[in-house]
Specification:
Strand 5, helix 3 and strand 6 form a beta-alpha-beta unit. This protein has a single domain, classed as Trna Endonuclease, Chain: A, domain 1 (3-Layer(aba) Sandwich), CATH 3.40.1350. Strands 1-4-5-6-7 form a five-stranded mixed beta sheet, sandwiched between helices. The radius of gyration is 14 Å and the shape is globular. It is about 40% helix and about 30% strand. The protein has three helices and seven strands.
Length: about 120
């Protein structure tokens, strides 16, 4: 399954979680529920995946963590905020660059319709 097909499956599961819970909860609740749904569907899922920073050929553990990584291909950054801004896009793109991932999903669950809170981000390696 390529990144785009996988992203479409992830979005479907995220919509299911959002329809069940609605907006207004903490980010951690949505993260746990989406992680559970992805695992239940049989995907290889890593939660809070550590992302080291390599600076001048030195690997530094700086505490960066991807919210969810699916099939070692798609980065999911989860938010539950009033609105997304450029810093959130930059954060997701940075994680993608650090891990050489091609596709990321920035998902803000604090919206009335989840489709309004989903942003696909492509990394042109």
């Amino acid at each position: 399954m390529n990144e785009n097909e996988l992203a479409n499956k992830i979005i479907g599961l995220a919509i299911h979680v959002h329809n069940s819970l609605g907006p207004g909860l903490l980010e951690s609740a949505y993260k746990e529920c989406l992680y559970y749904k992805l695992k239940k569907e049989g995907y290889l899922v890593e939660k809070e995946k550590a992302m080291p920073l390599v600076y001048e050929e030195v690997k530094l553990e700086c505490g960066y963590r991807i919210d969810i990584l699916v099939e070692r291909k798609v980065v999911i950054e989860i938010k539950s905020i009033d609105s997304l801004n450029e810093v959130h896009f930059a954060q997701t793109l940075t994680y993608m660059k650090l891990g050489s991932y091609k596709l990321g999903l920035l998902i803000n669950f604090n919206v009335f319709l989840l489709k309004d809170g989903i942003r696909r981000i492509a990394n042109m390696l």
